[in-house]
Each structure stands twice: as structure tokens, then as C-alpha cells.
């Protein structure tokens, strides 16, 4: 079965340690034959790589690693270069310019922190009300982001559950609770020709530590996206080390088939190409 992992981090990301070449080798060992490196560029977080506001060129670390990967990665795996661009809606002009750079094949649009808030990773989730209020603001900002031409697929819709869950708040971003805003978001993405990501970092044991064993977004949102006519979707392990590289991709494809998807998207120069899911 053809498997592609479109959310992979290398040591170009502040929170990852393994080189692109080693990540590629680990992915291939798990049967993945196409990957896209999506290292972090986050507006408002100086820990991550920065592009702009003056110079819009590839960060040097990324160039070096990519060349090294081309030289050292094993045969049989296609490697694409992309980005995980965080908080594009906090500086739309800069985000659009990054999207227009000719070097990247694919950009994930993410939201790791709300305006004037810390990264979801660092927040305190003391009560259900607090979680619901944060989801509400999260959706407002995602809707904003969906209207900016600065990414190809929206990453991990509802991923903050990961951190809420860790603090004992198991409040899902569900159609039942947030159907109205989720519909607005999905319709905006579809209208603008953008896709979504199925993030499988938490889908199976062996990916993330303490994986929640759930897909992100949940199957109710995946089904709704399909119902509304959404058909552009990528699958990503969000691996930050070789142990997690490619873990869950196969199960992600199976889940997509069960929820009514027949194709996954892969990208070249921001153009999706559709690969049939063969189970
Ligand atoms: Zn992310
Ligand atoms: Zn990521």
C-alpha cells in the first residue's frame, strides 16, 4: 500500500533532535515511501526558525539538512520540503509571502497559541468551562486562518485536547458541541481550495508518549468534512524523533477509508495530487 507522511519534524525544529536523513530511513522502514518535512516556523515564538519579515529565503539549517538527506537517505523514499507555519493569522502579509516562496512544496497551517496567550502546551485547563471557552476562541482563529492564502492543509484541528487530556480534562472538539463553527471552518477551507490533515500522533500506542489513541480531528469532524464535499486530506505522524517516524500512518489510511475517503493528497509546489487509498 502506498503510504505518505506529510507531517514530519527534523532537528530544524526546536523540539526535535533527529536529522532528516535518519527520519527518512526510519519512515521507509515502516513502509512509508513519501514524506514531507514540515519543520516549525511560528509567529510569536522566537524558539522556532524564522522567515521574514525582511528576508524571505530558506533558513540555512534547513538547506544543509535537506542536502544531507538527499545524499544520505536510502533509495526508495521521495522527500519533499515543507513547513508547519504557526499563527499565520497573526501576521497575514508575512504568512502570504512565505507561502509564495518557490522552495516549498507544501505548508501546513497551524495554530499553537491564541492571540495574547501562551502555546496550548503551557496553558492550565482547570475546568470544563475553561476548555470550552478556549475551543471557542481557537475555532474563531482557525476560521480567520482559513481565509488567508498561506497554507495547503490545516494541521491537527482540535489538537489542544492532547494537553487538556493530560490535565484530566477530557473535553473533545465535537460536532455536537461546536457544529456551527466547525461547519463555518470546513466550508471556508473547501471554498478556498484548502485541505485538512488527519494527525495520527495520538492514534496508536508507540507514537507519542501517553498517546490518547484518538485521531485528530475526531471521526465526527472527518465525516462532516466529507459530507460537505471536502476531499483534500493528508495524513501526518507529526513525528519529532525516529521512534515515532511513520507510526500510525497505515492506521490513518484505514481510518480514512472507513470514514468515506478514497484518496489522500500529496503535494508538489502546492498542487495536490490524489493517490488512491488501497486497503
Ligand atoms: Zn503542530
Ligand atoms: Zn508538528
Describe this structure in words.
With 279 residues, this protein is of the alpha/beta class. The protein has one domain: TIM Barrel. It is 33% helix and 18% strand. It is built from eight helices and nine strands. It has helices at residues 20-29, 60-72, 92-99, 128-146, 161-166, 175-191, 219-227, 249-258, and strands spanning 4-8, 34-42, 78-86, 106-110, 153-154, 195-199, 233-236, 263-268, 271-276. The strands form two sheets. The chain has a seven-stranded parallel sheet. A two-stranded antiparallel sheet has the order 8-9. Helix 4 (128-146) packs parallel to helix 6. The chain is globular and about 50 Å long. The model has no long low-confidence stretch (mean pLDDT 96).
Short description:
With 279 residues, the chain is of the alpha/beta class.
The third-level CATH topology is TIM Barrel
CATH superfamily: Metal-dependent hydrolases
* Helix run count: 8
Just name the CATH architecture.
Alpha-Beta Barrel
Question: How are the strands of the largest sheet arranged?
Answer: 1-2-3-4-5-6-7
Rounded to an integer in angstroms, the radius of gyration calculated over CA atoms is 17 Å
Amino acid at each position: 500500500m502506498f503510504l505518505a507522511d506529510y507531517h514530519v519534524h527534523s532537528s530544524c525544529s526546536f523540539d526535535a533532535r533527529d536529522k532528516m536523513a535518519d527520519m527518512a530511513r526510519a519512515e521507509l522502514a515502516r513502509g512509508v515511501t513519501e514524506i514531507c518535512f514540515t519543520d516549525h516556523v511560528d509567529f510569536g515564538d522566537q524558539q522556532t526558525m524564522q522567515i521574514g519579515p525582511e528576508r524571505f529565503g530558506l533558513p540555512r539549517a534547513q538547506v544543509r539538512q535537506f542536502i544531507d538527506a538527499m545524499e544520505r537517505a536510502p533509495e526508495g523514499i521521495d522527500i519533499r520540503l515543507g513547513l508547519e507555519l504557526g499563527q499565520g493569522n497573526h501576521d497575514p502579509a508575512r504568512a502570504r509571502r512565505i507561502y509564495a516562496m518557490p522552495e516549498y512544496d507544501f505548508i501546513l497551517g497551524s495554530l499553537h497559541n491564541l492571540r495574547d496567550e501562551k502555546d496550548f502546551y503551557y496553558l492550565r485547563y482547570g475546568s470544563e468551562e475553561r476548555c470550552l471557552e478556549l475551543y471557542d476562541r481557537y475555532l474563531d482563529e482557525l476560521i480567520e486562518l482559513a481565509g488567508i492564502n498561506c497554507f495547503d492543509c490545516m494541521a491537527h484541528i482540535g489538537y489542544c485536547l492532547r494537553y487538556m487530556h493530560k490535565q484530566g480534562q477530557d473535553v473533545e472538539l465535537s460536532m455536537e458541541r461546536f457544529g456551527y463553527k466547525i461547519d463555518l471552518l470546513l466550508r471556508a477551507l473547501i471554498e478556498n481550495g484548502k485541505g485538512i490533515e488527519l494527525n495520527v500522533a495520538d492514534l496508536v500506542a508507540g507514537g507519542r508518549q501517553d498517546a490518547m489513541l484518538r485521531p485528530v480531528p475526531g471521526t465526527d469532524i472527518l465525516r462532516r468534512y466529507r459530507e460537505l464535499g471536502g476531499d483534500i486530506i493528508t495524513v501526518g505522524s507529526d513525528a519529532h524523533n525516529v521512534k515515532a517516524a511513520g507510526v500510525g500512518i497505515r492506521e490513518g489510511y484505514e481510518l480514512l477509508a472507513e470514514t468515506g475517503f478514497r484518496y489522500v493528497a500529496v503535494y508538489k509546489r502546492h498542487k495536490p495530487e490524489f493517490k488512491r487509498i488501497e486497503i
